[in-house]
Design a protein that fits this description.
39% of the residues lie in helices and 26% in strands. The protein contains 12 helices and 15 strands. The strands form 3 sheets. A 6-stranded mixed β-sheet has the order 6-7-8-3-9-10, with helices on both faces. A 5-stranded antiparallel β-sheet has the order 11-12-13-15-14. It is elongated, with a radius of gyration of 24 Å. The two termini are 48 Å apart. The structure holds adenosine-5'-diphosphate (ADP) and magnesium ion (MG). Magnesium ion binds next to helix 1.
Length: 361
């Protein structure tokens, strides 16, 4: 059990942790979410004392690990850390990466460290990769090695700081699968993540961090579906909605495609639906609206309703009345009608505001 009591971390120009209080029970799998800069990494790094808190206490099974005389190697043996950027040793083979700390710190024999390493590689789906170097592996494979390396120390607690956010979207799944397997094994885990559906699937608790502390603490259902407090509500809503502002003819549609991929990943939107969302935005905005307006000012909002498993796409733009269904681009219109259930259009004369609402099939 880990108890955080009035934990504080002050930097010269920021105090990300003002007063953090929490009890983390054995076996808890906690997703830590919140806007950027709210101290999620700082919290994780303070818990295993990679950063020394400036105030408060951390009790590990009742023992205060922040006490000046406490032997930190004891706490660090019990807590493993997985970073966004893998942090593997590039000059060592995969198996050497896994053997190093168990031999150095746990004083395991070479044979024992090797055997454990081989078994762990198999567990993360990388049997046979022992003698490769990290640079020969993909990002997803590197992160799985990093997780195996953490497991080689047999920690009681695993802290993961955005373990999939440096990965190409195609590799997120394989790393999530390994983490999901760990979560099921009963290890205590804290994981900073932006992927809501993943957080929901693996954790029994969610910490929403804001305003210098754990602003809301609850089950995934509570925090994601019925947030109690205003800032949580706003954050969750923003996660569920994707907004694109197309305010120039040079708008970066390729970059927007990446944003759409990420949004779909975070919300567990199936590939087929993702493809349709991209198609609608391409045809509606790039082909039809950009042809109609010399100076575009279009706000696109995508909302996905997991229950109904459908996406709704809104496009709002100021200017003269222009109903996209009246476009003479018949090709784009036929593509649009092919993937959509309904296309509705409204125009507000007084505000000169066009509003399009598209429901996907
Ligand atoms: N080593 C550091 N030195 C100074 N300021 C830092 C340091 N690490 C983090 N901060 C500041 O603390 C705040 C929280 O950072 P961080 O914990 O990385 O947030 P998050 O992980 O939620 O994005 C930020 O304002 C950041 O600039
Ligand atoms: Mg961070």
């Amino acid at each position: 059990m880990i108890e955080l009591r009035h934990l504080e971390k002050k930097y010269e120009n920021a105090t990300p942790l003002q007063d953090v209080n929490a009890v983390i029970r054995d076996g808890d799998v906690i997703s830590v979410i919140g806007p950027s800069g709210t101290g999620k990494s700082t919290l994780i790094r303070c818990i295993n004392m990679l950063e020394r808190p400036t105030g408060g206490q951390i009790l590990l099974d009742g023992e205060d690990i922040t006490a000046p005389k406490y032997d930190l190697t004891k706490a660090r043996r019990r807590m493993g850390m997985v970073f966004q950027s893998f942090n593997l040793f590039g000059h060592l083979t995969v198996i050497e990466n896994l053997m190093l700390a168990p031999m150095d710190i746990l004083k395991k024999s070479k044979q024992e460290a090797y055997d454990t390493g081989v078994a762990l590689l198999r567990r993360v789906g990388l049997a046979g990769r022992e003698l490769q170097y990290p640079e020969q592996l993909s990002g997803g494979q590197k992160q799985r090695v990093a997780i195996a390396r953490t497991l080689a120390m047999d920690p009681d607690v695993i802290l993961l700081d955005e373990p999939t956010s440096a990965l190409d979207p195609t590799m997120v799944g394989e790393v999530q699968a390994v983490i999901r397997d760990l979560a099921k094994s009963g290890k205590t885990m804290l994981i900073v993540t932006h992927e809501m559906s993943f957080a929901r699937a693996i954790s029994n608790r969610v910490f929403y961090m804001d305003e210098g502390g754990i602003y809301e603490d609850g089950t995934p259902e509570q925090v994601f579906d019925h947030p109690r407090k205003e800032l949580t509500r706003r954050f969750i809503r923003r996660l569920k909605v994707l907004e694109l502002l197309i305010d120039s003819r040079d708008f970066d549609f390729i970059g927007a495609g990446t944003q759409i991929d990420l949004y779909c990943l975070q919300n567990d939107i199936p590939p087929k639906e993702k493809y349709r969302i991209r198609l609608v935005i391409e045809e509606l905005v790039q082909q039809i609206l950009l042809a109609a307006f010399a100076e575009p000012d279009v706000r696109v909002t995508v909302e996905y309703a997991p229950d109904a498993q459908t996406a709704v796409i809104f496009a709002d733009y100021t200017g003269d009345r222009f109903d996209p269904r009246d476009s003479d681009n018949e090709l784009s219109l036929s593509v649009l009608t092919g993937v959509t259930e309904t296309i509705d259009f409204k125009y507000d004369d007084s505000q000169k505001q066009n509003h399009v609402e598209i429901r996907l099939k």
